[in-house]
Design brief:
Elements lengths: L3 H12 L4 E4 L2 H8 L10 E7 L5 E7 L3 H4 L10 H13 L6 E3 L6 H5 L6 E3 L1 H8 L4 H24 L6 H16 L4 E8 H6 L15 E10 L2 E2 L2 E6 L5 H20 L6 H14 L9 E3 L6 E5 L12 E4 L2 E4 L3 E4 L2 E5 L4 E3 L7
Parallel strand pairs: 1-4, 4-5
Antiparallel strand pairs: 1-2, 2-3, 6-7, 7-8, 7-9, 10-11, 10-12, 12-15, 13-14, 15-16
Helix pairs in contact: 1-6, 7-8, 10-11
């Protein structure tokens, strides 16, 4: 397979001074080959070999999942057959010299069988190449955004007194899977009430939603190897006026970010501008302002106070200001945007109210 994504891998290989790449993280394997692990978490050891011309070869092995599913079973390393298959793939592609690897995900047992003349870490260089999306990637991310809208509409319709967080999350996931036509991986938060929302987020529980509760619904679905991201805060019934003020301030901060988004904008400056709107209302949040989205749910650019990243056309970014008060609860709102040549396009198909 040779396409624009593989050519970007080639650029990263050249940047780190290597001759070829062995990609082992699921996100990078998906990026280079189109292969995505199964939504139910099962799957295989997989890697992609990419040469200096942009040709990629996938090697995958189905796992014996027992070691991971059942405590007390000894966990084995990579099977000899898999290591041999990767070495054979390297030989079939005529690869040699210095190999670029993802240090955090590449096991020594796999490298030992390759007999390379040296290794270079490609992680950061590849992350920078992946930050701007190809046309095909942007199309897929638009669909991921549509999925978040389906989920958020279901959450808004179903968040009511007497429903548990788990029941609501189940309805949301079912609606998204009907739209997808298959199982999906769905990450994120669904928490309700003062204490759970003031703590920023968490997994859904059997807590029953009550009158006046805030409900933070942060949905992060994966479709065909790419991720969406979204967040709304639903106020059930007659909410505390302070919560309503916090919600309005977070919405104002997000709208302000939408007005600013454009190529050339410093991520650090954007972060400061969004936080300034909340600070004017006496509010703050402890998490990032935003991040890129792609084959990982959080990619470059990082929109945080210390970021050195700059927005570029072709990036897809999530912006998510929040406000949290232990006395009344928390609010977080998030939209997904595509950075264009002249500004940005909102991808999230749901309202904040």
């Amino acid at each position: 397979m040779t396409d624009e994504r593989c050519l970007r891998v080639v650029a990263a290989i050249a940047e780190v001074g290597a001759d070829w790449a062995l990609l082992t993280s699921p996100a990078a394997v998906r990026y280079a080959t189109g292969f995505a692990e199964r939504p139910d978490g099962g799957g295989s050891h997989s890697c992609a070999l990419v040469d200096s011309g942009g040709s990629a070869l996938l090697v995958t092995e189905h796992l014996d999942a027992a070691a991971e599913l059942y405590p007390g079973v000894a966990v084995r390393g990579y099977r000899d057959e898999y290591v041999a298959a990767v070495a054979a793939a390297k030989e079939s592609m005529g690869l040699g010299g210095v190999v670029a690897v993802e240090s955090a995900s590449c096991p020594g047992s796999l490298l030992a069988g390759l007999q390379s003349s040296g290794q270079r870490d490609i992680t950061l260089a590849l992350a920078r190449q992946r930050a701007t999306k190809t046309r095909d990637e942007r199309d897929q991310l638009r669909w991921c955004a549509q999925l978040t809208g389906i989920g958020q509409h279901e959450a808004a319709a179903g968040a009511e007194r007497g429903v548990t967080e788990l029941e609501l999350f189940g309805r949301v996931q079912a609606a998204m899977e009907r739209a997808e036509g298959s199982r999906i991986t769905l990450a994120g938060d669904l928490v309700s009430g003062r204490d759970r929302t003031a703590a920023v987020g968490g997994l859904p529980s059997d807590r029953m939603i009550g009158e006046g509760d805030p409900v933070i619904c942060d949905l992060v679905p994966r479709s065909r190897g790419y991720w969406g991201d979204s967040c709304t805060t639903l106020l059930v019934g007659a909410a505390d006026p302070r919560l309503e003020e916090m919600h309005a301030a977070a919405a104002q901060a997000l709208s302000h970010a939408a007005e600013l988004l454009r190529p050339g904008l410093s991520a650090r400056v954007l972060d400061g501008e969004v936080r300034r709107v909340l600070a004017a209302a006496g509010l703050s949040y402890p998490h990032h302002t935003g991040h890129g989205v792609g084959t990982e749910p959080q990619e470059l650019p990082r929109i945080v106070p210390e970021s050195t990243d700059t927005l570029e056309a072709g990036m897809v970014v999530a912006i998510e200001p929040g406000a949290y008060d232990p006395e009344v609860g928390g609010v977080r709102l998030e939209w997904l945007f595509e950075i264009t040549e002249t500004g940005s396009t909102l991808l999230s198909p749901y309202s904040l109210s």
